[in-house]
């Protein structure tokens, strides 16, 4: 059965059990309405903690000596980062509109899970090397990773910031995840939010990973002058990525990320990268955790995930499903997630 239709079937079944009563037309989309479900920040945090407890990677970065030791052990035994793939899709399996048009698919509670950490209290320490540690009711997905990766299509269509946010406090720049863009031919605009945030000291210097054979020296110099870090790599022969629009060998990309200090990588899209990672699960898996948010919108014409390798999808092991507002969030792991 097609992966999207498996999610659709489970979503509708869960919805009926939870009181969804009718299908409403909203603009040009259809929306399955609910009697309402509200999930607290603590419950969302517990859901993510449970999901990451099934991997050999620390659920979040804290001052815990044990978790720091686990992090060092993982980092020392692997040639690439721990990878979380996460994306939102419509009920009919679309992640974007026609021509890559950005769609707001996730509801407020699902957005909170991805973006917004909620601290309970703050413990202040003073002196050399001191820091402020916040016990979290909810440590968001982005806050659990030290790098966030997207493709150039996402940058051109969505102009994202790729930052983690907290309620009531400003996340220190040093604690923000590293923004990483797969940009084969260096098409990133010099005035995009990623670069402007860096210029305004509101974000880390973005990394643009490109194909050495596709870039021009002039374009590289323009982006470097604007503030981006350009990282050229030599294309390999990875079968999954040769057909992808990004045109980069994902294994080499991940090796470069690891060599540059990224141990926990969150991949958010777009469609070509997502499809490549999912299609590779059965051959040489690079995925540890998959989190898919399914919204109740029916998009119609648009861009979806192309999963040509059915064997790969069959190796995904379902961990848990969480209903957040009107959204259903599905979490999976792979057989390699616990192998180290």
TrEMBL record:
Recorded GO MF terms: 5-amino-6-(5-phosphoribosylamino)uracil reductase activity
E.C. code:
1.1.1.302
Q: Residue ranges of the Bacterial bifunctional deaminase-reductase C-terminal domain?
A: 81-302
Q: Which InterPro entries match?
A: DHFR-like_dom_sf (IPR024072), RibDG_C (IPR002734), Riboflavin_Biosynth_HTPR (IPR050765)
Gene3D superfamilies from the xrefs? Dihydrofolate Reductase, subunit A
- The source's domain of life comes to Eukaryota
List the pathway annotation: Cofactor biosynthesis; riboflavin biosynthesis
Instruction: Alphabetically list the UniProt keywords.
Output: NADP, Oxidoreductase, Riboflavin biosynthesis
> NADP as a keyword?
yes
Cross-referenced Pfam families, in alphabetical order?
RibD_C
What catalytic activity does the UniProt entry give for this protein? Answer: 2,5-diamino-6-(1-D-ribitylamino)pyrimidin-4(3H)-one 5'-phosphate + NAD(+) = 2,5-diamino-6-(1-D-ribosylamino)pyrimidin-4(3H)-one 5'-phosphate + NADH + H(+); 2,5-diamino-6-(1-D-ribitylamino)pyrimidin-4(3H)-one 5'-phosphate + NADP(+) = 2,5-diamino-6-(1-D-ribosylamino)pyrimidin-4(3H)-one 5'-phosphate + NADPH + H(+)
Query: What biological-process GO terms show up in the record?
Result: riboflavin biosynthetic process
Family stated for the protein in its record: Belongs to the HTP reductase family.
Give the protein's function: Catalyzes an early step in riboflavin biosynthesis, the NADPH-dependent reduction of the ribose side chain of 2,5-diamino-6-ribosylamino-4(3H)-pyrimidinone 5'-phosphate, yielding 2,5-diamino-6-ribitylamino-4(3H)-pyrimidinone 5'-phosphate.
The name under which this protein is listed is: 2,5-diamino-6-ribosylamino-4(3H)-pyrimidinone 5'-phosphate reductase
The lineage, from the top, is:
Eukaryota, Fungi, Dikarya, Basidiomycota, Pucciniomycotina
């Amino acid at each position: 059965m097609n992966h999207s239709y498996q999610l659709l079937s489970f979503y509708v079944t869960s919805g009926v059990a939870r009181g969804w009563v009718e299908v409403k037309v909203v603009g040009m989309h259809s929306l399955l309405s609910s009697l309402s479900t509200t999930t607290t920040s603590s419950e969302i945090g517990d859901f993510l903690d449970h999901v990451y407890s099934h991997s050999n990677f620390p659920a979040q970065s804290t001052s815990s000596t044990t978790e720091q030791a686990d992090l060092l052990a993982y980092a020392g035994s692997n040639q690439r980062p721990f990878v979380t793939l996460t994306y939102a899709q419509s009920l009919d399996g679309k992640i974007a509109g026609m021509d890559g048009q950005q769609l707001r698919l996730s509801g407020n509670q699902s957005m909170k899970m991805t973006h917004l950490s909620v601290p309970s209290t703050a413990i202040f320490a003073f002196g050399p090397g001191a820091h402020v540690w916040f016990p979290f009711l909810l440590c968001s997905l982005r806050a659990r990773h030290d790098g966030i990766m997207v493709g150039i299509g996402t940058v051109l269509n969505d102009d994202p910031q790729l930052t983690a946010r907290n309620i009531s406090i400003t996340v220190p720049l040093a604690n923000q995840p590293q923004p990483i863009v797969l940009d084969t031919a260096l098409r990133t605009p010099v005035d995009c939010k990623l670069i402007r945030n860096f210029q305004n000291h509101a974000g880390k210097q973005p990394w643009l990973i490109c194909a050495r054979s596709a870039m021009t020296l002039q374009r590289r110099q323009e982006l470097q002058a604007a503030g981006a870090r350009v990282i050229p790599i030599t294309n390999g022969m990875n079968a999954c990525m040769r057909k992808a629009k990004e045109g980069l060998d994902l294994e080499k990309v991940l090796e470069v990320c690891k060599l540059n200090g990224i141990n926990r990588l969150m991949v958010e899209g777009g469609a070509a990268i997502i499809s490549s990672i999912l299609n590779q699960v059965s051959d040489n898996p690079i995925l540890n955790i998959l989190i898919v948010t399914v919204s109740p919108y029916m998009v119609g014409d648009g861009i979806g995930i192309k999963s040509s390798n059915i064997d790969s999808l069959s190796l995904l092991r379902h961990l848990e499903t969480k209903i957040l507002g009107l959204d259903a969030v599905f979490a999976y792991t792979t057989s390699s997630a616990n192998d180290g």
